Amino acid sequence: MKSNFKDYELSSEILKSVGMLNFESPTKVQEGVIPAVLKGRDIIVKSQTGSGKTAAFGIPICELVDWEENKPQALVMVPTRELAMQVKEDLFNIGRFKRLKVSAIFGKSPFHSQRKELREKTHIVVGTPGRIIDHMEKETLDLSKVKYLVIDEADEMLNMGFIEDIETIIAGVSKERTTLLLSATMPDRIENLADEYMKDPLITTIEEENTAVDRIIQERYVVAQRDKIKLLRDITIVENPDSCIIFCNTQQNVDEVYDELYEMGYTCSEIHGGMEQDDRLRIMKDFKKGLFRYLVATDVAARGIDIDDISLVINFDIPKERESYVHRIGRTGRVSKEGRAVTFVTEYEGRFLQAIEKEIGKEIPLKEKPAGETVEERKEEFTEKIKTKPEVKESKGDPLSKDILKLHINAGKKTKMRPVDIVGTLCSIEGMSAEDIGIINILDVSTFVEILNNKGDLVLRELQNRPIKGRLRKVNIADRDRR
Ligand code: AMP
After folding, report:
1. Which residue has the higher pLDDT, 15 or 396?
2. Mutation test of ligand 1: which of 20, 23, 92 has the most ligand atoms closer than 8 Å to its C-beta?
3. Which atom of ligand 1 is nearest to the CA of 304?
4. Which pLDDT score is estimated for 482?
């Protein structure tokens, strides 16, 4: 029999979020991890992304943190900024009805605004090792109450040279804690880390029956460098994907391919490590929403990023590192969906192909380039699709937000507004109780408050004539995107 989230000891708030995220039954990794973490057991998880591992640690941690405590109780280390943003969002969604505050801290983003956020109530902090240490050194991150420590994508953090940073961070956290370590592979340094810092950890290895590599249809084409753009055009016409990532090995190639596609009228965008962090995050967000169909990218977009429904991955340049191939193609065929990955190989790149085939344990079949006739036949349908705007996808958290209305109140810390003042007034409205109040965020001169359970309109109406802390305040609907 399939297990059910209701079989675990989870509160109604967490079960409600899980239900609204459409998680019907726990994935394998969740079956192993959730009950163990709920019992406070240290755990090592050997599993790939795409297995539901974020929710595997997110669900029990969101369940266990104490809402009343103001200081962070869980610290999650991740290798990249993109992953920090994503894990923050996943945890926020899981903890939404428990009103948990989750902060993400990472480099190349203003330190002072993170410091300000960390001064407020924060239940969970997700961050990259370098920036976590910055905050520890400047004493802007208080780790004294951290009871749950998560080391996510440990092997990748090792590759990126973060191992000493991780040890420094662990040393800053109380020994009275539960430690979770997640890693796709277990190199010696990671095993040593586990031996040294974990207490009798439970080891779960999730061998996916149907790994990404098996699930994804893979093909390759032999092509001369100068003919790659034409082949790219022909393949996109024939495949006519709803969404597609095109990987290149260098920023320059990304720029060139992007320019070509743009000229040809594709709805497309580009992303690489040379771009500003804010632009990168915005582009990933827009791609997730489905605002454009084609994303041209370097490997910055290949790691850990969770985007549903990418129908086609094209390796415009064959990756020179074999692991990178698996990460790139793993962007398609997420969580048991089928996907397609196409790789261009020039005649000088046979050795990279061999290394990749060795890594995945099978040959990638060679395909003939599409015939001119086939391309012509499919062109009309293709042109039709690139002319129409893609349908905007709902983000995972959207169903959770539907019965929530966020209000803006024109008063904040400067006028000594406190959460109790807001809660007091809201609860004085007939039909409202503390259960209906979501996250309250008090800034200098304004306050944002979430009203749950479809009671937002009622509250908005009532607050037009009802004073808060002795005075009538200007209250209106806040911009939905602001958190
Ligand atoms: P991850 O391995 O954390 O990158 O998760 C991969 C994807 O699986 C994410 O899009 C999750 O939202 C989704 N997911 C996680 N748990 C479940 C579940 N129990 N059922 C369905 N989807 C899930």
Report:
1. 15
2. 23
3. 4
4. 40
What would the mean pLDDT of 15-30 be, rounded to a whole number?
91
Tokens of 245: 């990532």
223 lies in the same domain as 200: no
**Ligand 1 site, residue 49, Cβ cutoff 6 A:** yes
Clarify whether residues 198 and 269 are in a common domain: no
376 lies in some domain: yes
Enclosing domain of residue 417: 403-477
Residue 241 pLDDT > 60, yes or no? yes
73 Cα–ligand 1 center, Å: 23
How many of the other CB atoms lie within 10 Å of CB of 8? 19
What is the share, in percent, of the chain residues with pLDDT greater than 70?
92
- Contacts of range 65-68, beta carbons closer than 8 Å, 24 or more positions apart: 65/95, 65/100, 65/123, 65/124, 65/147, 65/148, 67/98, 67/99, 67/100, 67/123
Sheet holding 405-409, edge to edge: 437-442, 447-451, 405-409, 475-477
Residue to substitute in 54, 88, 93, 395 for testing ligand 1 pocket (most ligand atoms within 8 angstroms of CB)? 54
The SS3 call for residue 149 is: strand
Same domain, 199 and 216: no
- Ligand 1 pocket member 23 (CB < 6 A): yes
Question: Does residue 188 sit in the same domain as residue 42?
Answer: yes
Residue 107 domain flag: yes
Centre of ligand 1 from the C-alpha of residue 171, in Å: 31
CB of 53 shorter than 6 A to ligand 1: yes
Residues 127 and 181 in one domain: yes
Question: Which of ligand 1's atoms lies nearest the C-alpha of 23?
Answer: 20
Q: How far is the CA of 266 from the centre of ligand 1 (A)?
A: 30
For ligand 1, atom 22: residue with the closest CA: 23
Is residue 398 included in any domain, yes or no? no
Give domain status of residue 171, yes or no: yes
pLDDT at 208 (0 to 100): 59
pLDDT tens, position by position, 290-320: 889 999 999 876 665 667 678 899 999 999 9
Distance 365 CA to ligand 1 centre (A): 30
The tens digit of pLDDT for each residue in 201-225 reads 999 987 655 566 777 899 999 999 9
Task: Report how far ligand 1's centroid is from the alpha carbon of 201 (Å).
Answer: 24
State the Cα–Cα distance between residues 130 and 106, nearest whole angstrom.
Answer: 8
Model pLDDT, residue 366: 95
pTM above 0.90, yes or no: no
Question: Do 284 and 363 lie in a common domain?
Answer: yes
Alpha-carbon distances of 92 from 21, 135, 279, 280, rounded to whole Å: 12, 21, 22, 21
